[in-house]
Amino acid sequence: MHLVNFTPWSALAGGALIGLAAALLALCCGRIAGISGIAGQLLTRGTPDRLWRIAFLGGLLAAPWLLRLVSDSGTTPHSAASPGMLLGAGLLVGLGTRMANGCTSGHGVCGLARFSLRSLVSVASFMAAGFLTVWLLRHVWGGA
Amino acid sequence: MKSRAAEAAIAALCGLLFGLGLILSGMTDPARVQDFLDPAGSWNPSLAFVMAGAIGVAVLPFQWLRRRQRTLGGAPLQLPASHGITPRLVLGSVLFGIGWGLAGFCPGPALVGLGSAWQPALIFCAGMLGGFGLFSLLPGRPG
Fold first, then answer.
1. Closest Cβ–Cβ partner in B32, B50, B115 for A5
2. For chain A, what is the domain count?
């Protein structure tokens, strides 16, 4: 093991902003800031209350644009995955998060902050699957 | 929340804060996320600090809401109905974890990447959309 790009302070600060957003949405609107649920249910027939979902996603998508207006710095993202891998991974994430009723935000942030047992089981399951997948990807099949 | 417009305005602000938090924390970079999931290689523990920061800020408001059961404006909470610990919860989480590990994207960072028109995020989001569609074909929702 060797540590790379470890940025504890910006990670904590960014995390605090995410927690603040989740707390505000719950305090003011009584809603859970779960990205997969907000996006997935927008595409489901018969979902009521579409307006706040569209507004939330609009804010999320606008974040990189707003940041670019005030500064052109920021980290350049990297992706090692091929287009086919990205498409397949997206399919698994879309299906899996809807089956589990949540992802890193709904279960990982809001659910754990609510002390939900379901969320704890979900987080333990997706973390375990994620660790195992990256280990297989990088150290067994020898990818990136 | 009385007015839908006010609710939407707050939701937009929350989405923006959420996205800025993801960018500031570095979690919009799939390589960093995969590095977190790789303690046997180039480990980057940052994601644990993002989770700690987020939960640290959210835990008191959420626990207060749990007792109060109402929003600041007095409206009832719209919490997810609990279905207990089901096979579907575990299977869905495992499928999500596999996809998360393969690409380093979860839904939030993928949508932020979509917002900045970053090609890998566009492709991933197309797949994710397909996954949402596949879910709607499953029998016996929700479970």
1. B32
2. 1
Which amino acid makes up residue B85?
A: I
Of A8, A68, A78, the CB nearest to B31: A78
Find the domain containing A100 and state its range: 3-140
Chain B residues 77-116 within an 8 A CB cutoff of chain A: 77-80, 82-85, 88-108, 110-116
Can you give the pLDDT at residue B143?
42
- Whose tokens are 């499953």? That residue is B138
How many Cβ atoms sit within 10 Å of the Cβ of residue A139?
12
Using the predicted structure, report yes or no on whether residue B109 has a pLDDT greater than 80. yes
Q: In this structure, is residue B143 part of a structural domain?
A: no
- The domain containing residue B121 runs over which residues? 4-137
Could you tell me the two tokens for A140?
């067994």
Domain contains B142: no
**Does the distance separating the beta carbons of B78 and A31 come in below 8 Å?**
yes
Q: Which of A86, A112, A132 sits opposite B55 (nearest CB)?
A: A112
Which DSSP state fits B76? Answer: B
Please count the residues of chain B. 143
Residue B68 forms contact with A (CB below 8 Å): no
Which residues of chain A make contact with B130, given a CB cutoff of 8 A? 87, 90-91, 94
**pLDDT at position A45 over 90:** no
- pLDDT digit string, tens, across residues A55-93: 999 999 999 999 888 876 566 889 999 999 999 999 999
Task: Please count the residue pairs, one from chain A and one from chain B, whose beta carbons lie less than 8 angstroms apart.
Answer: 505
Choose among B80, B90, B54, B19: nearest CA to A41: B80
For the stretch B25-65, pLDDT in tens is 999 999 999 999 999 999 999 999 999 999 999 999 999 99
* Structure tokens, B4: 């839908």
